[in-house]
Design goal:
The complex is a heterodimer of chains A (312) and B (419). Chain A is 70% helix and 0% strand. Chain A starts with a helix and ends in a 5-residue tail after the last helix. Chain A contains 16 helices and no strands. With 312 residues, chain A is an all-alpha fold. Helix content of chain B is 60%, strand content 21%. Chain B is built from 8 helices and 12 strands. In chain B, the strands form 3 sheets. Chain B has a 4-stranded antiparallel β-sheet, with no helix packed on it. Chain B is elongated and about 175 Å long. The chains are: A mainly alpha (312), B alpha+beta (419).
């Protein structure tokens, strides 16, 4: 009893400096996470989006985690403050936004959570953004560079992005989403046995997700007409625009693929071709080998990439 | 795996990640930093080039949060902006400084993020200190022991050099202080004198400025009074105009009301005219039918006339034969009776007179044709005429039609005109 009283007193105390804030946060991380999770649950219940099952519990934990992460960084600049009150206000502010969560029942399936994790990560991580082209469409580094018409410096960044994603980004994303090996293997199993069905389902879910997360783009990133995309590629500008918008807009990406003529299967539209694990280094080498021979490289390269998949 | 265990594992993993982030956040290194305003990515900082800065302005809404993330997505800096006003924060990132400032005004806000790289020597020193700390805490792999030792040596050498320089500087300061104390006293006195003179000048200037200001204030007050009067006049003018506009609006309303009344009357009259037109059309159709009926009856009368002529010729035959023929022919008794009544058969028809025809004129006409006038029904009089001889009714009707006071004659009133 006295211990809990001490704890509540400690939490309601004022922290005066950034150092004190850091000390408090380090000591009270579990309580902060639980508080943020409880608030998220309450939000889900109040908005009629709650079901008492493990997927909803995981969703609440994940959003609670993201809120605590923001609190740890922003709270240091708010001192002196009462940290718990600050956390509550931060959460309330976040959930008062229109549609703060990408909530849909179908997104609570393993496939939905996997795609949600990839897409939400792509919003904050450039590595995740570049990897989205691979996980959704099966586009390797060379494909991405060519489709987006990137220059030398930008290409180097793409390779770095893919490398970091391979090393740690994908793993971290899966951990943060609470994806288990069993669930990932299940998705791969589905892909092996029913690829068409899985890709169709992924296509449906991806449209939901992209529509939600595209809102995170600033207002000066609108969809362009085919003619404007042609101008943009022709006059060689707006690299950032290409990368950020095309990853989140299927229709514009279709225009871009059509203009750049890089679709590997000869079709006009890029199709969803779900890739669960990140592109391995062997895939990269195999992809570039046919190019040295002077061939077009895309079809063969992509096929080789697919063969080179190895579980992380 | 049990759901509770799975959930507990997930929570533990998230806590570990949070701890890891909070302890390693300041050591994150990235060539590019992403700037997020209100959770939307708005730009990047290229940290490889000097001291980059990024400025963002939103003219439509205030800035709520600013987040700085590495390209891998790690959150390394951030700020919750006030609703109105300024806030600045400075955080350390791998020995470099990250300055974030935000300024919110009514429905608009601006933000600035600046990256200040540490100087090369200080950066190396700090990096070495970090490495040393990491090495002492046993967190780093053993393979990095030699660079850590080198860094520690660098720190020691720098510290000793700093100590020596400080000591030398202190000695020199003390010696020069003793030598120059007398000359400094004289200089101070001169300075005091010049300061007093300047103070006197400043006081005079201030007095002059105060007077000028008072004059300006008086002028300003005068101008203000004038403006107030003008404003009052303008307000009165506006009131008058408003009153006039209201009056005009009242007159306009009356005119509208009258117009509406007139229009409604005109509409009602138009409807009435339409109805009368319809009635007339119906009457016309009735007349047409009556005409056709008259023609039919005319034909019938002609036939009767023929048969009557035949009967008359038969009447001229000797009585014996007549009896024989009568016995042989045995015509229907009704017809025989009719033939007997023919000389005094009443003939009924209807007559409509011209407007304004007097009763006397009508009675006079009735006497002429030996008829009896009946009741007036919607302008039509039923007239019964006893035809004294086998006289066709057409003749009577034709003669009536030619009378000046007669407007129309009909034998059938199945459709009474005007009803």
């Amino acid at each position: 009893m006295s211990e809990s009283q001490d704890q509540s007193e400690r939490f309601s105390n004022v922290v005066a400096t950034a150092k004190e804030f850091d000390q408090f946060a380090a000591a009270a991380l579990p309580q902060l996470l639980d508080r943020a999770t409880t608030q998220t649950k309450r939000f889900l219940k109040e908005t009629g989006q709650w079901e008492p099952d493990i997927t909803h519990e995981k969703l609440a934990l994940r959003w609670g985690y993201e809120l605590v992460e923001r609190f740890l960084v922003c709270g240091r600049t708010e001192v002196p403050c009462r940290p718990l009150f600050l956390l509550d206000s931060l959460i309330a502010k976040y959930y008062s936004q229109p549609e703060p969560l990408c909530y849909h029942k179908d997104l609570l399936s393993p496939l939905g959570r996997f795609l949600d994790g990839l897409t939400s990560r792509a919003v904050v991580s450039r590595d995740g953004l570049m990897a989205l082209f691979y996980h959704l469409y099966g586009f390797g580094q060379g494909h991405v560079v060519k489709t987006l018409g990137l220059g030398m410096a930008e290409s180097q960044r793409v390779y770095k992005n893919f490398e970091r994603w391979r090393q740690s980004g994908w793993q971290r994303t899966m951990e943060e989403m609470g994806m288990t090996d069993t669930e990932l293997n299940g998705i791969e199993e589905q892909k092996r046995h029913h690829p068409e069905r899985l890709n169709a389902e992924a296509d449906r879910l991806t449209r939901l997700l992209l529509a939600h997360y595209r809102k995170s783009e600033p207002e000066h990133y609108p969809c362009l007409s085919r003619q404007k995309w042609d101008d943009l590629f022709g006059q060689d500008y707006g690299y950032d625009y290409r990368v950020w918008h095309l990853a989140f807009c299927h229709d514009c990406f279709t225009h871009a693929c059509d203009l750049r003529g890089t679709d590997t299967q000869g079709a006009v539209k890029p199709r969803i071709d779900l890739q669960v694990r990140p592109l391995q280094k062997g895939g990269l080498m195999a992809f570039f080998m046919p190019e040295r021979g002077g061939g077009k490289g895309h079809g063969t390269g992509r096929a080789t990439q697919r063969l080179s998949h190895t579980p992380a | 795996m049990e759901p509770d265990v799975q959930l507990s594992d997930y929570r533990t993993r998230l806590l570990e990640t949070l701890e890891d982030h909070s302890s390693h956040r300041h050591r994150e290194r990235s060539d590019f930093l992403q700037v997020f305003v209100n959770h939307a990515r708005v730009g990047t900082l290229d940290c490889r080039r000097g001291s980059p800065a990024f400025t963002y302005a939103d003219g439509e809404r205030v800035i709520e949060t600013i987040e700085i993330r590495t390209e891998a997505g790690t959150l390394v800096g951030g700020l919750c902006a006030p609703e109105i006003g300024m806030r600045t924060a400075c955080s350390s990132l791998s020995g470099h400084a990250l300055e974030i400032s935000v300024h919110n005004q009514q429905e608009r806000g601006s933000a600035r993020v600046a990256y200040q790289p540490a100087s090369a020597r200080w950066g190396r020193l700090q990096q070495a200190a970090e490495n040393l700390a990491a090495g002492l805490s046993g967190l780093r792999p053993v393979g990095l022991a030699w660079p850590r030792t080198l860094a520690a040596a660098q720190i020691c050498v720098t510290a000793v050099a700093l100590f020596l320089i400080t000591d030398r500087w202190m000695d020199r300061t003390a010696q020069s202080h003793l030598e120059k104390s007398s000359s400094v006293e004289a200089a101070i006195r001169d300075d005091m004198r010049s300061l007093e003179q300047k103070l006197a000048q400043f006081t005079e200037t201030q007095t002059a400025v105060a007077q000028t200001q008072q004059q300006h204030i008086a002028k300003l007050q005068h101008t203000l009074n004038t403006v107030t009067q003008t404003q009052q006049q303008l307000a009165a003018g506006v009131m008058t105009v408003q009153r006039e506009v209201n009056d005009k609006k009242g007159v306009g309303r009356e005119v509208d009301h009258l117009t509406r009344l007139l229009m409604s009357k005109v509409d009602a009259e138009r409807d009435q005219v339409h109805k009368e037109l319809k009635t007339l059309t119906a009457a016309n159709e009735g007349l047409t039918k009556q005409l056709s009926a008259l023609e039919g009856s005319n034909q019938e009368l002609k036939n009767r006339l023929k048969s009557a002529g035949l009967d008359v010729s038969k009447v001229s035959v000797p009585p014996e034969k007549d009896i024989v023929i009568a016995e042989k022919a045995t015509p229907p008794p009704q017809v025989a009776e009719a033939r007997r009544d023919n000389p005094a058969q009443p003939f009924t028809f209807w007559v409509s007179f011209q407007d304004g025809t007097s009763e006397e004129s009508i009675d006079h006409l009735m006497q002429e044709i030996h008829g009896r006038k009946g009741a007036n029904n919607a302008g039509w009089y039923d007239v019964v005429v006893s035809l004294p001889q086998p006289q066709p009714a057409d003749g009577v009707l034709e003669s009536l039609k030619h009378a000046k006071i007669v407007k129309a004659v009909t034998t059938h009133r199945t459709l009474p005109p005007g009803q």
